[in-house]
Amino acid sequence: MAKRKNSSANISAQNRKARHDFFIEENFEAGIMLSGSEVKSLRAGRATITEAYASAENDELFLVNAYIPEYESARSINHEPKRPRKLLMHRREIDKLQNAVNRKGMTLVALSIYFNDGGLAKVDLGLARGKQQHDKRQDIKERDWKRNKARLMRAKG
After folding, report:
1. Looking at the domain covering 10-131, what would its CATH class be?
2. Given CB 3.0 to 4.6 Å as the disulfide criterion, which of 40, 61, 62, 126 pairs with 71?
3. pLDDT tens column, 1-36
4. Number of CB atoms found within 10 A of residue 91's CB
5. CB atoms near residue 106 (< 10 Å)
6. Contact (CB, 8 A) for 128 and 101
7. What are the structural domain ranges in the chain?
8. Contact, 108 vs 53, CB < 8 A?
9. What pTM, to 2 d.p., does this model score?
């Protein structure tokens, strides 16, 4: 299950800024190890992954900078909001991603956290290459042109 399949997933957190700042080459789905209070907080939809990325340490992947706030009802058994969380993938996939990051100067960006049909928390990772300022301006021009073109087509009937 390396690549994410399109399904009616329950998205808990989304990184909309990632597609503006990066060229997404390939998407991967990874499981995520969470504590009980983290799951409750994610189901409430209060997580932020705007600056989240995955890094490889000791042949394991970790989600870094993902903010999952404490769950109020958990009291004493709460979690740390910005702790690194282990990602679950097959060894071959981890090696492939680690080689791409090291060799090609790419990064693993968290695009979304969601619950699949089985109720398990998953992270949609994007193997990404950073955009430069002129690339971002070009994307904005294309988006504006498509919007104006659609407006003109609707006006003509």
Report:
1. mainly beta
2. 40
3. 455 554 446 888 888 888 888 888 889 999 999 888
4. 9
5. 19
6. no
7. 10-131
8. yes
9. 0.77
